[in-house]
Structures are given as C-alpha cells and as structure tokens.
Amino acid sequence: MGSDSELSFALDLTLDEARRRTAVLEAIGEDWDPVAVLAEEERAYDILYSGLDPEQQRIYDELVQAGVLPDRTVGRVTD
C-alpha cells in the first residue's frame, strides 16, 4: 500500500446503544421518579451554595459572571 491509500469504514452502534439504554433503565428500576430526582438535586445545590462567607461568595459570583456556574441567587438576600 502506498502512502496515498485510504482505508475508511463505518460502525453502526445502534444495537449497542439500544442494549445500553435497556441496561440503564433496568438498573434504575421501575420506581425511579425523574421529577423527584431533579427536585432533590436542586435542594442539594441550594444547600451547597447557602451560607457562604464573603470570600466564598465573591468567588461564587465571579464564577457565575464567567458562566462557569449557573446563577442560583434568585431570592438571595443581599446586604
């Protein structure tokens, strides 16, 4: 084979993706409630970002302004 030769191929991962999704849903179980999971995640973030000292708050605000973190300060009491 010369250096001008190209080898191309394609893979169809459709069946593997269907198997993966089936396995994930089986692992999650029938009682999984995505709305409740998201609500718990929101509560966890509220706890994580509450009670920050002034330096932590400054860093948080900088990260929000830079677009690294979402702004979770709606309703936050400021001085």
Topology (SSEs and partners):
Blueprint: H1 14-28, H2 34-48, H3 54-65
TL;DR?
This is DUF6400 family protein. It contains 3 helices and no strands.
* Quaternary: single chain
The SSE string, one letter per element, is: HHH
Strand tally, please? 0
Integer average pLDDT: 87
Structural class: mainly alpha
Helical content stands at 40-55%
The fraction of residues assigned to DSSP E strands is under 5%
Largest sheet: none
- Distance between the terminal alpha carbons, to the nearest Å? 73 Å
Task: Give a verbal description of the structure.
This is DUF6400 family protein. InterPro entries: DUF6400. It comes from Rhodococcus opacus. Pfam families: DUF6400. With 79 residues, the protein is mainly alpha-helical. The chain is 53% helix and 0% strand. It is flat.
Q: Which short descriptors sum up this protein?
A:
flat; mainly alpha; 53% helix; 79 residues
